[in-house]
Design goal:
The structure is a homotrimer. Chain A has 20 helices and 11 strands. Chain A is α/β, with parallel strands linked by helices.
């Protein structure tokens, strides 16, 4: 069997017994997925997924970056060069290449997610090997066409109560409209991600700004019009269910300039004359502006800072963004967030959720900040930190200072649709493991741990994100 | 029962058995509390503590910052605004508000400390809930008036062999004098904390300097007089039992200027014309000056760096210092301490104890430094790091490089008097847990572990602090 | 017994059982020691080691830095002052001084290494104490003269398949030639360590450069001649078995200047007119130059950055380099390595191995980088991080992102010859402990764990270093 019922539980029998009981109380709770990158088109069109390689291998950063690190070229995976024709590739050949490198994923979360998905969804209960790769391909491919493996059927089977996609500020959200128009009952909401019209260094920023103006009818080259355009887009998103905005900046820098300073800065930005420092300051100012808009429209503000995007220059030139070469870097929060927190940190009705790729900030900065400011909550382990060991460290490094109730449950943050149940299951098991240790060491009573487990698996995400 | 005898011991039966045996050998050792913030007036006057809320809730940063983070206003806790009238508050109402938020402290050390205190001191053996809050309030309130719950009686019941308070350089130490004059045998000493006359950016620095001059009869606006004034105050403190000085700077920066440079710098400081950089350099210079004075008078030098004080601007404006918004920040030691260490680091008779709020420095900087320099010792986990998980990390991250004998035992560092036995008990249990793991894994023999446990619980603090 | 068969294995019986089985499968594998500092003269001359103190105490940084931190002066250990006469010291007295401080090493890896060596090599099975120090000295001293305790006999007894020493670029490698000429079959190779002719701030850099010119017949004061001289020396080292170069810079900074910029920079360096920034840039440029040479000659590039060398100024003045006062400091990799990675990071046939003294970079920077770039691999825990707890953290912090196969097995990195089997044994046991936990928690199957254990103990080092 690929999936042992006790997976991820600690070996000590007493602790494992507690973990099992805690987990039994939450394993069947619906999934709240408040932040992620699934494609709303899937739910709108409800078409069959094409083939196992396109489903599991090609869209998954965790998979193709590991293969690339060991000498597999992206072309071999059928990933297209920028501006080139769609790469031709035989999905079965990609699958077999993947299978022949499966040992690379030993000890990684990809192993857990993949085996959970193929086992629980497709009934595959053998470890992937070069020898059985063809047979497993056939099993999966044979099911993808069946109605019960279409996106909406899987949504129901996954017991998803609500899921948020993420769309850019200029997106027309037509797939979301189509989902709603369809009468299907699945709750799929969007989130407002305005990086392309907030970051002066984003590719095509000037054109993006012009599009924003067209979409909203505002004079977006003037500061007040620009802000008003954001307000309108936020309202547009909110009408399609959005309960949050999301911001992926290189740092957590925030600013709170005077009206006059902000106008002056924006004038440079709007003319394309912003220096690197101007651009950085502007991004920081916009976080605070977004927080202020949240005071009015109630959207939750998510800050996802600290990634050095597209670190591999030649890969970026050849293949474009999001090719697995985003590398975390050290991230300061204490001074960076202060302007925003000085402005709105004491607002009890605002929710700002800070994420990090830099674990060193958990105990030193983020837990002390979230354990003080009413507006600030701590997001779960993100990206490289959404794996079992890292999740345990998250709890160990934050709970003693911030408690459980200044955190917001789990985010799967994925575009790998079939991995969603697995990711939530891993998070639930890891939280039960952490709680079981507290109980076994008489630091928490089991009835309380059961309540906390439920909160971490379900309630906190639902409430923090208003889903 | 609130207190399980095995609390904080690892679940594995063999390891737990070892931990129990180690702990049995040290549980009844007297408490050495070499650094903390209890009020000497308590011991001087020996009056009854007023009520449960004033005793447990209002003075405890850990408690009110957590409540504040979840929307409780400080006014609701009876905390007075700056310059305002003493806040009116019903202590019973504060207590019930606290009880209704008790779940927030799950997984935090506050939970452990509070339950240890109410159980072992007041015989309360139920978990605090809104339903029993009144009854528990009554139990505690009913005992506070009794003689055996007065400060001195508790001191003896707590088995405190020696405790150090911390007073500012300008303090007249009258309570300490009163304790000594009373004939009571409890050993309560002071520590010299001159931040208010060392830090040019401290509120009221100029007036503080003037007061220092008046107190000492020195011309404190000249460099030599200023240093002499410190020497006199140190002697004054030492006569009242002080064995240490303590310094809470924003960074660990030290400096070792020439006589001429130091005079020139001080001239600016004394005239109130120091820039931010001057002020920082001056604080660094004074750490080295204090270390040099320690060579003469034998006081132990404690450095507590790395806190961004009063991070919440509006809270600071409304309520003043120490309102729970001190946030740790990244702290360098390798370059920062070098001037001081170059000056006095090789002195075998000097003890400089470095603390940190930044765990990343444990294995990278502090353990390697303390494992080399004869004068440097490593202080225990401080503030947010004085909790079980953090204490284990402290040992895991420092022992392999610095051993046990370049550390100095435990500091409770608290003004929450009733939590002192609990804090030392938690530290002792965590050290036994760490040692039991070494024994169970055959990395240390049990007889040696027993000796180390004793050293960590008692001897190292007593010797390092000369108590 | 000093050595328990289960040492370093987790206490939980199930997990321990798995660890035992995994370890049984690898305990007798030959040692691959791809990076270290043993003296090739030992193997060339095959003379007896002089006495226990000279063998165990005097050359071991871990030992004398700890003794120094507790007030033992280096003179007491017979360590000579710079330019002074060889220190006179009675080795037996040094040994007894060491024995009287043996408790300092509780919980440190020195304890494990020393006891493994004296027990398995000399049959000493008592814990060192002041009381038995003389007797143990006699046992060891009595054996050192015997043929089976000479360097080559120990090499064979240690089951060393290959070992690399490290020599400076100007070394004539005569001991390596002598080893080869001797007909002895032990595989002892060298590694190219050019710091003294690459770092403009190295003591004697100008003379070193001149020597490099003499050795190679190149005009090393011109950029092309300088590079050609390196190529020749690398070839010379490669003929003596070298498969790697090694670079110990203060930071991980790399650069990739244009030909013209590099020439201009080198002109300043060659004239001794380089500023601190020039020197730093030049070191960074040379890492990239070395990587480019590796593309041609196949040497593996090792980067060992992040140590503040000779931190203790007065000790450095009195005793010179390598006196235990090298202190790790925070090290950036994300921006530092980018120029080199942009130049050669996508080369699948190049191997660059990055090490760190700063654990914070493991999960944040190094695992994400090594989990993406084909050319980059992650070196094992180094220096203060080559101890059990640190080794487990290394796996916990890197595996989930980089897997096992972007790491390169173990380096003992030592000049303490007799500790080599112990160090490899500790590493093997720690890896088995980590793998056993994965198996016990159903995150990896035991047959796979056995394969990984073999890879980590043997294959990865052999293949990465081409030994």
């Amino acid at each position: 069997m690929l999936l042992n019922d006790d997976r991820l539980f600690p070996a000590d029998p007493v602790t494992r017994g507690i973990a099992r009981r805690l987990y039994a109380g939450i394993r069947d709770l619906p999934i709240i997925s408040p932040h992620g990158h699934t494609d709303p088109r899937w739910f709108a069109e409800n078409k069959a997924f094409p083939d196992p390689a396109t489903l599991f291998v090609k869209p998954d950063h965790y998979i193709f970056r590991m293969l690339y690190s060991q000498g597999v070229r992206l072309e071999q995976l059928g990933i297209a060069r920028k501006g080139g024709k769609p790469a031709k590739s035989d999905p079965r050949a990609v699958w077999k290449l993947f299978a022949s490198h499966w040992h690379l994923f030993r000890g990684t979360p990809t192993r857990l997610w993949f085996e959970h998905a193929v086992s629980s969804i497709f009934g595959v209960n053998e470890r992937l090997t070069p020898a059985n790769a063809d047979a497993i391909y056939d099993i999966i491919a044979g099911k993808l066409d069946q109605p019960e493996f279409r996106p909406r059927a899987l949504f129901e089977r996954f017991n998803i109560e609500a899921i948020s996609t993420t769309e850019g500020a200029l997106d027309d959200l037509k797939w979301h409209d189509m989902i709603r128009a369809s009468g299907w009952g699945g709750k799929v909401v969007t989130a407002y991600r305005p990086d392309s019209v907030v970051d002066p260094e984003f590719e095509g920023f000037a054109e993006n700004l012009a599009s924003l103006g067209e979409l909203t009818g505002e004079d977006v080259f003037a500061w007040t019009g620009y802000l008003e355009a954001h307000r309108k887009r936020r309202a547009y998103f909110k009408e399609r269910g959005a309960t949050s905005s999301d911001h992926g900046h290189a740092t957590a820098r925030t600013a709170n300039l005077s009206q006059a300073e902000a106008e002056k800065l924006f004038a440079k930005v709007a003319k394309g004359k912003a220096s690197a420092e101007d651009a950085d300051l502007f991004r920081g100012q916009m976080l605070t502006e977004m927080a202020k808009m949240s005071l009015d429209d109630g959207l939750v503000l998510q800050i996802h800072p600290g990634s050095f995007r597209n670190h591999n220059a030649s890969l970026f030139a050849a293949f474009g963004r999001d090719m697995g070469a985003d590398i975390p870097r050290q991230t300061d929060y204490v001074t960076a967030l202060k302007p925003l927190l000085d402005a709105v940190g004491n607002e009890p009705n605002l929710t700002v959720i800070a994420f990090t790729l830099d674990e060193t900030s958990y105990s030193r900065e983020l837990a002390p900040l979230a354990g003080h400011y009413p507006a600030l909550k701590l997001g779960p382990g993100w990206w490289f930190l959404d794996a079992p060991e890292a999740m345990l460290r998250f709890r160990e490094l934050t709970t003693e200072t911030a408690g459980f109730y200044n955190t917001v449950g789990f985010n799967d943050d994925t575009r790998a649709y079939l991995s969603i149940p697995a990711r939530h299951d891993v998070a639930r098991r890891c939280d039960c493991t952490y709680l079981a240790k507290l109980v076994a060491e008489h630091r928490l009573d089991e009835d309380e741990a059961a309540e906390v487990a439920h909160d971490l698996a379900y309630r906190l995400a639902k409430e923090a994100y208003k889903l």
